[in-house]
Amino acid sequence: MSSKPVEQSIRKKLTEHLEVSHLEVINESYMHNVPKGAETHFKVVVVSDKFDGVPLIKRHRMVNEILKDEIQNGVHALSIEAKTTSQWNNSDKTIDPSPNCRGGFGK
Amino acid sequence: MNAFTKSRELRKLPALLSKWYSAKAAPEIEQLVKASKVVVFMKGVPEQPQCGFSNAVVQILRMHGVKYDAHNVLQDEDLRQGIKDFSNWPTIPQVFINGEFIGGCDIMLQMHQSGDLIEELEKAGIKSALLEKEKEKSEKDSGSEK
């Protein structure tokens, strides 16, 4: 059994459904008030040509839908960057960390 | 159905019912969403957001000088579930402009960076404070060239 089941499942689903040309799954749980090794807060960078001509909000909806089970079962926060391959190649390819927690978790 | 499975089924009932009845109904939410040109569902209040993502949205709107209605979902569990169902969006914060769902923190941040937010606000008849500042700056710049 893997020690990162959620991260791996996110990776697998996004890879399969979106034919990603680049994918980063970043576990940001350590930034929050959760036990060590928790898998509650994630940021995903999804680069896929399936986003071509798709508005931003719809790209996010696609990702949310694919990760529906994860979001319903334990993933508390999901930050999404969804880009086409050319958008990604033309970007500076840096990923800003999500904003710091302010203590609302668990309430 | 034997007694065991029956009692198990019964035990599930409250959870099932609460799933149906605990979320605020769509007409109620629609009223909230349409009560103001910009409406934000967030964790905490604008003066004291209780989540980094909600705070980011508050800061963006502040920069644009936008007045808005804010609803604290931590105060109201029905609203917290209701708004997610209403917009079919799994996370908080959620921003509405002119009654239309715009997105959460990531989308607001990207629209802010791309300039699309200024346009979106303009469509709703709101002049972004950033736009005013830019204008002032460019007028000053062109003035100094003369």
UniProtKB/TrEMBL annotation, chain A:
Pfam families in the record: BolA
Annotated region described as Disordered, given as residue ranges: 88-107
Gene Ontology CC, one term: mitochondrion
Domain of life: Eukaryota
Classification via InterPro entries: BolA (IPR002634), BolA-like_sf (IPR036065), BolA/IbaG_stress_morph_reg (IPR050961)
PANTHER family linked: BOLA TRANSCRIPTION REGULATOR (PTHR46229), BOLA-LIKE PROTEIN 1 (PTHR46229:SF2)
Family stated for the protein in its record: Belongs to the BolA/IbaG family.
Protein name as annotated: Uncharacterized protein
Organism this protein belongs to: Acanthoscelides obtectus (Bean weevil)
Lineage: Eukaryota, Metazoa, Ecdysozoa, Arthropoda, Hexapoda
UniProtKB/TrEMBL annotation, chain B:
Signal peptide positions on this chain: none
InterPro entries registered for this protein in UniProt: Glutaredoxin, GRX_PICOT-like, Monothiol_GRX-rel, Thioredoxin-like_sf
GO molecular function: 2 iron, 2 sulfur cluster binding; metal ion binding
GO cellular component: mitochondrial matrix
Domain Glutaredoxin: 38-102
CDD domains registered for this protein in UniProt: GRX_PICOT_like
Top-level taxon: Eukaryota
Keywords: 2Fe-2S, Iron, Iron-sulfur, Metal-binding, Redox-active center
PANTHER family hit by this protein: GLUTAREDOXIN FAMILY MEMBER (PTHR10293), GLUTAREDOXIN-RELATED PROTEIN 5, MITOCHONDRIAL (PTHR10293:SF16)
Protein name, as recorded: Glutaredoxin-related protein 5, mitochondrial
